[in-house]
Amino acid sequence: MSTNSINGATDQESLTLPLLTSHRSLANSTSQVAIVGANVCPIESLDYEIAENDFFKQDWRTRGKIQIFQYVFMKWSLCFLIGVIVSLIGFFNNIAVENIAGIKFVITSNMMLFNRYGMAFLVFSVSNLVLTLFASIVTAFVAPAAAGSGIPEVKAYLNGVDAPGILSLRTLFVKIIGSISAVSSSLHIGKAGPMVHIGACVASLLGQGGSKKYRLTWKWLRFFKNDRDRRDLVTCGSAAGIAAAFRAPVGGVLFALEEMASWWRSALLWRAFFVTAVVAIVLRALIDLCLSGKCGLFGTGGLIMFDVYSANVTYHLIDVPSVLLLGVIGGILGSLYNFLLDMVLRVYNLINEKGIFYRIFLACSISIFTSCLLFGLPWLASCQPCPADASEACPTIGRSGNYKKFQCQPGHYNDLASLIFNTNDDAIRNLFSRDTDSEFQYSSILIFFVTCFFLSIFSYGIVVPAGLFVPVIVTGASYGRFVGMLVGSESSLNHGLYAVLGAASFLGGSMRMTVSLCVIILELTNNLLLLPLIMLVLLVSKTVADAFNGNIYDLIMKVKGFPYLEMHSEPYMRQLTVGDVVTGPLQLFHGLEKVGNIVHVLQTTTHNGFPVIDDSPLSESPVLYGLILRAHLIELLKKKVFSSTPVPIGADAFNQFSASDFSKKGSGNGDKIEDIEITEEEMEMYLDLHPFTNASPYTVVETMSLAKARVLFRELGLRHLLVIPKISSRSPVVGILTRHDFMPEHILGLHPLLFRSRWERLRIPLSQLFKIF
Amino acid sequence: MSTNSINGATDQESLTLPLLTSHRSLANSTSQVAIVGANVCPIESLDYEIAENDFFKQDWRTRGKIQIFQYVFMKWSLCFLIGVIVSLIGFFNNIAVENIAGIKFVITSNMMLFNRYGMAFLVFSVSNLVLTLFASIVTAFVAPAAAGSGIPEVKAYLNGVDAPGILSLRTLFVKIIGSISAVSSSLHIGKAGPMVHIGACVASLLGQGGSKKYRLTWKWLRFFKNDRDRRDLVTCGSAAGIAAAFRAPVGGVLFALEEMASWWRSALLWRAFFVTAVVAIVLRALIDLCLSGKCGLFGTGGLIMFDVYSANVTYHLIDVPSVLLLGVIGGILGSLYNFLLDMVLRVYNLINEKGIFYRIFLACSISIFTSCLLFGLPWLASCQPCPADASEACPTIGRSGNYKKFQCQPGHYNDLASLIFNTNDDAIRNLFSRDTDSEFQYSSILIFFVTCFFLSIFSYGIVVPAGLFVPVIVTGASYGRFVGMLVGSESSLNHGLYAVLGAASFLGGSMRMTVSLCVIILELTNNLLLLPLIMLVLLVSKTVADAFNGNIYDLIMKVKGFPYLEMHSEPYMRQLTVGDVVTGPLQLFHGLEKVGNIVHVLQTTTHNGFPVIDDSPLSESPVLYGLILRAHLIELLKKKVFSSTPVPIGADAFNQFSASDFSKKGSGNGDKIEDIEITEEEMEMYLDLHPFTNASPYTVVETMSLAKARVLFRELGLRHLLVIPKISSRSPVVGILTRHDFMPEHILGLHPLLFRSRWERLRIPLSQLFKIF
């Protein structure tokens, strides 16, 4: 009561008193680096605003019909290419994993057939170790950005965070071979996340017209000169990744929409749909090709696709409680999973910081530990006699099947080995399959669940490409099946369906998607009649899990330090104005500026945008003309269109430039100010910035509330937001807001008062609730 | 060549010359009325901006945890209620239609069994006429806004267009009973579109807390005080509508996302998913209830759901050409359909303008015409002998079935009557069904296709609730089946699947959605293996059709005159500045304003937002303080918090107001200035506007390009955008931009030069292409 009345009193005061005293530091101290993959990198923002300068307008106006047609045609051709390439990579990936892992399991199983268990373990663990070592060495030395699933990195990129190397050719290459060898090495990791990253890399490289570094560029591809078009392509690429990984074209589109993209348009929906349709059709054709057995051990296993069609799934009211129970368990386990993964990642970060060799050592220890578990645990399970009416050979001969012999006598099988001593895909298939209700023992399923749960947490953070989807599905399916076995004959659903629902609940609890997960699971299992149950399970598990913590990818992004701009504002931002946050000192240019000044400013600051003002004699009082980008200034300095006196240049100056000079360079490919040589004489000359200045920058008045400025910044995807003064007597610009100025850490750092003041009372529940709903 | 060089020359000039001479009219002459349903209404804009005034901030700060929890809880409870109510209405709708139409067909068929053809025709046509008459009278007299499908109206509402009565209780009521009787009267119209409108009405009424007009309000429901929250609810409602109409929960979410919503957030995706999940679960429970035959003639027919599962659909490369052909035909027919429908609607508008009786007469003539066609055409078809191995009774006895006897002898059936003398749902089911490859003759299918195509065009515009989805599906299915028959045994697909693909292609060609249609069709037909083919067909048909004209709903919106703000800007907007478009004269208020002035301005203008400026003695030079809304001014005048001298009021003034005073009223429910009585004495008093003024309005500088200002306006969902001057010597505000200022017609009206100048060259292809891609 008393706190309330005190709060009430301060609230009343706050209307007349200024909200904050002006003790604010001047430099933005927010960290502008993040962990990309496994390495710490400096990061920049992307710029989705169109720099509408005279040159751009001129270029835009002179575009004829043919160029516009060419642009549209290129857009769609690139989408087609993305679809084809990503589906080929996805297919190759699958064939390689199935064959490498398959041969390993066949050799080991054969040795065990002759009771050479020691030798079998040696072969199994050494081959796993070698594969992991290879993957980790390649990742650590060649492209650290390829470590992990890549989904957080791509998600941050699509939010406007530019980190060098995130989508480079090197990353693509390492991601493909690293993912193949890591997944084949029986680590408890998936290949769907890396596929998303691969799709994004392919899209980005095509959009940039190849990799400049490796001189693999195609001029006809260099059509997309801005971050906007590239963002759209990368969104399509990530949709293609999921579509190729799960053969789920609609699910892929929805995944890109729900989880990955920060900006979305209806037109993009259509293009993403086109890309995933291409993926679906190419994959289908390739699988037809493999049906005849030309793809080695691939074909029986095949792409992830778990046909559980029981033509008439019937369920009744009696099944609802157990389905709800599954949802609740999924929510609790999912949030626990996220919490533990977050902790482990923080610990791993400490280890990874120590150096490359620590990273590789960590990866190898996890591999050895995994091998021991996978080989050791099945010994705990008792052998089961083969069922008389088994629809397939028992015990299984060769590669995939439900009945692994392992250490058992002929005519018996080891049910735990069927799950654990197998590829993840086969384990899922076994768990999902129907008419196998008596195949597994309680203890085996329970051991399998615990192993999966913890192994996948400890395996994610090592320095290899590693996805989360498949481990989460396996873990969810195992406890789903366990619940199914507990419910037993009370239920009209078979255990395979419980496994599917369990997988859905754990996915919902840890990844917190709804529509996309629902469609992905439907497409994976090819049974539409399950729809209402899957929706129910997802809703329950997401609701329960959201009460505890956030989406797993958001947590990972936070651990990695990406300045991700959320949609919603923190409540205290509504009480702050833009003026409370904007920092100086500000570097300005005049419309007609001395070359020496420009060079000096570019050399001494790292800013990427500078306000341009007009002063006397062009205007009576200083007036804001616009905003010029560093990249454009460097281009101007390179071309040296200087004049010895401060006079405007004519339109003919445009002839010295082509549109591609002002196009956005690929990440890290821009010229640096240090590379440009300018003579002493030129330093004294003048440059007319007007035609190259974006004369329509977005502006906010300094008294605007921070929350509303943030909405503007976020919705329009800006990199720079100019702050203009309320009263006109001062300089025409107060400052520039960038992404880092909107980060809660920065704002709370500027105004430490906010931390322990009455705002806190509001901050926690509100931000929590608004994040969730 | 010569034109090119001339253009080049003018382009060069344009850099130095001002783009436009300042011959511009002062008033915004754009029509601010639109056809809503069947009547012409004045329209307003909705306001998605938060009016951040001191009062709001105070209210926001004093909200405790409980209130926030209450808010979130209400949000989800309303979603739950929307789901339950919409599914109940949808179910009731279906039962009513199936029973009314069913009884009609049973009686008619029985009469024909005894060769009383004349009597049968009389009963058939009179019952149709009575039903149509009832529907049209109810619609025309009670709620003209309920005419048509309602999708264009809801789409416009979700874009920020507020028309009175669009989502009122009266509209809801008429839409339900009108749709039932119109669909039962064998008109060639659907019930899916009306269901979307019904869902939107339910959501809006719940969001507003009931209908004030009919005193049906619940205080505990009045929680959502702004257009933003209501928009979200209406989006969920429209998703629920499609989900209930087609039993397609995921399709419903995607439809709302792809076609209806102009703004979308990930959180909304989840809520829409929740709503449609509720719909799916309730519908399933209700259908279970009906399975035992308690629902009259409903149950055998049931909700639209066409199970065409042939467990193993196989298709090969040889099927691709015919599928592509279907896509191309669908695209051409779809755009032709849109074109003709557009024409017919324009003609109908002329008739409808003449008065209510013309409208009803038109509806009745269409009904009689339809009855004649439906009864007359089957006589053209020759009777077919019943197949020996028919899986059901032949000829059909009673209500639904594949083999209608019509005029044939016993042991024979009339294949055209099975299609045409039937409800649309049954016709679709017959067309989609497999193992019926020899049932239909070429001529029957062709006659049916032509009849459907034209009847549906002529039936849409009459003054009854009428959807487009089902007629489009029937028409598409009929030519799909025709193509299937032509291809014949060359193909491995059966004719039923061709009908499905034909329906997909025609939907794609006329509605131009992709992902949502794809999912809706999958959910309708319950066969996931068709996915790649459906994707292919949709892509081809949409691409082909987009080359000719736009989406059917966009065309209808244009005919109706809704000021829909598209995502993309017209190219010439990039060459104009905000200053070229903004119109005056502008009404300003001072921070401390005389009551008399306020009343006078409110009485003499219809503006909804006014800039508030601070002048001496509060500030040295005039300074923009913010923007105040008309509704808030009226509220202030009502409470009469005046002071006799111009002094700021203290914080205690807030105690006289509650947050709900400043909440957005339901459409048409706001107080009018004429209703407020103010004495002469009070007219001389002062009002402090500061605490009630939105101190953080969005602003643009007058030199900003119109295209970029438009992006800001559109993306943030604004109603008012303040334009501030570049040079500070003048008034601190130049003007206000509203939705109508961004309409191409308005801009071209202001600057007729743009019409016939070089811009035209660019305007057509660019706008066309950017709309499409």
Classify the beta-strand content of chain A into a percent band.
5-15%
Q: Given the helix and strand composition of chain A, which structural class is it? A: mainly alpha
Number of strands of chain A: 16
Strand order of the largest sheet of chain A: 9-11-12
Biggest interface, and residues per chain?
Answer: A-B, 96 and 96 residues
Mean pLDDT of chain A: 83
Kindly report the oligomeric state of this protein.
homodimer
* Radius of gyration based on Cα positions of chain A: 29 Å
How far apart, in Å, are the first and last alpha carbons of chain A? 29 Å
Low-confidence stretches of chain A: 1-26, 756-773
Categorize the overall geometry of chain A: elongated
Total of helices of chain A: 28
- Biggest β-sheet strands, sense, barrel of chain A: 3 strands, mixed
Helix content of chain A: 40-55%
